[in-house]
UniProtKB/TrEMBL annotation:
Residues 26-53, 54-81, 82-109, 110-137, 138-165, 166-193, 194-221, 222-249, 250-272 form the C2H2-type domain. Keywords: DNA-binding, Metal-binding, Nucleus, Repeat, Transcription, Transcription regulation, Zinc, Zinc-finger. InterPro entries: Snail/Krueppel_Znf, Znf_C2H2_sf, Znf_C2H2_type. The keyword Repeat applies. GO terms for molecular function: DNA-binding transcription factor activity, RNA polymerase II-specific; RNA polymerase II cis-regulatory region sequence-specific DNA binding; zinc ion binding. Belongs to the snail C2H2-type zinc-finger protein family. This is C2H2-type domain-containing protein. It is found in: Nucleus. SMART domains: ZnF_C2H2.
């Protein structure tokens, strides 16, 4: 109970009041206002009863103003805070964090496919994904999978280390990376390995030759009587015949037509 001390003289009371001059006053925990008596503080606290209070995320203490909370947070500035890995909320004690983690215990976490960060709600993940929207992603040239960091891509490439997915259409050599194949193709850039048997035009790739052969599909071809090779123009045949000029040809005794092989002559003789 509160004891009220009485005095017979006013000057005696004034001297007594000096005893209380250094007393610890009653302070409001919400706005830090001080009062000389507890009853005054209790009356004052009704002012805050309908206020929307701001809570400290570390110790859960409530404040009426953000500025007061900021000042209060300095108390925790030197504390070693423990962060929740799910929502990044900070706690001063491991025991408080453990209690908090029960909130997330039944949650289905939403993981970011770019950086593997986890979120408790899909909406948080969607907001987070905007961070990566302007990022230059590193794409795997083999399987098109994207990565946010080059070192992650390099680790991923080890998966393909024994694969040889890219074939050279000229010499069938295999490469594990597309850029290796591109570099290799420069070797063949001046080569023309595939020759058209009709007009002797050369091509660097078989696919180009096949496309070209369609040009000759409706042509009336002229055959070499010596080796049966076909040509689209008489002038080309004449040039070709020079190949056989030094050959020892076998003549048909009936029509003087020449052949390079006896077998060809025998086939021809059936005409006569």
């Amino acid at each position: 109970a509160h004891i009220v001390k009485s005095f017979s003289r006013k000057d005696t009371l004034n001297r007594h009041l000096l005893v209380h001059s250094n007393e610890k006053l009653f302070k409001c925990s919400v706005c830090n206002k001080s009062f000389s008596q507890k009853s005054y503080l209790n009356s004052h606290l009704r002012v805050h009863s309908n206020e929307k209070l701001i809570k400290c995320s570390v110790c859960n203490k409530s404040f009426s103003h953000k500025s007061i909370l900021k000042k209060h947070l300095l108390v925790h500035s030197n504390e070693k805070l423990i962060k929740c890995s799910v929502c990044n909320k900070s706690f001063s004690h491991k025991s408080i964090l453990k209690k908090h983690l029960l909130v997330h215990s039944n949650e289905k976490l939403f993981k970011c496919s770019v950086c593997n960060k986890s979120f408790s709600q899909k909406s948080y993940l969607n907001s987070h994904l905007l961070v990566h929207s302007n990022e230059k992603l590193f794409k795997c040239s083999l399987c098109n999978k994207s990565f946010s960091r080059k070192d992650t891509l390099n680790r991923h490439l080890l998966v393909h280390s024994n694969e040889k997915l890219f074939n050279c259409s000229v010499c069938n050599k295999s490469f594990s990376h597309k850029w290796n194949l591109k570099s290799h193709l420069l070797v063949h850039s001046n080569e023309k390995l595939f020759k058209c048997s009709v007009c002797n035009k050369s091509f660097s790739q078989k696919s180009y030759l096949n496309s070209h052969l369609l040009v000759h599909s409706n042509e009336k071809l002229i055959k070499c009587s010596v080796c049966n090779k076909s040509f689209s123009h008489k002038s080309i045949l004449k040039k070709h015949l020079l190949v056989h000029s030094n050959e020892k040809l076998i003549k048909c005794s009936v029509c003087n037509k020449s052949f390079s092989h006896k077998g060809n002559l025998n086939t021809h003789l059936l005409v006569h």
